[in-house]
Amino acid sequence: MYSTQEAEQAEREGFRQGLLIGRAPQGAQLDLQAIAREASALDGEPDDTVEAIQRTADRFHRLIVSPEYQHAQRLADSWSAAFVWPKTLETLTDIVTTGVLNQLELTPMR
């Protein structure tokens, strides 16, 4: 039976080994690339008329409700939560770990 520290260490080592041999999950990277392309395209849209601004706003809304954006947002929120999550005996099974983040990265939004 592993202690929590041993389990976390094994998880970190597995993650590092995955990075070293090119097996790291690619899901969030692809999501971020799609989001960055769309955000860049939005930045280049004309904004000289009310109609153009409305089209850009509509396109921005479609971006932030897209599955790619929602997936990346969920992953970013979870990563941030890991730093402030209470680490007590009661919450021990709910702590956000590297393994949890890896699983979230591979799990698309439903």
Would you summarize the structure shown here?
It is built from 5 helices and no strands. The protein is an all-alpha fold and 110 residues long.
Question: Overview of this structure, please?
Answer:
- With 110 residues, this protein is mainly α.
- The protein has one domain (26-106).
- Helix content is 69%, strand content 0%.
- The chain has five helices and no strands.
- It has helices spanning 4-20, 27-43, 50-64, 67-84, 98-106.
- It is elongated.
- The relative contact order is 0.13.
Number of strands: 0
What global shape is seen?
A: elongated
Number of domains: 1
Low-confidence stretches: 16-24
Mean pLDDT over the full residue set: 80
| Helical residue percent band | 55-70%
Sheet bearing the most strands, described?
A: none
In terms of DSSP E residues, the strand content is under 5%
Number of helices: 5
Distance between the termini: 34 Å
Structural class: mainly alpha
Radius of gyration over alpha carbons? 19 Å
Can you write the helix and strand succession as a string? HHHHH
Layout: helices, strands, pairs:
Layout: H1 4-20, H2 27-43, H3 50-64, H4 67-84, H5 98-106
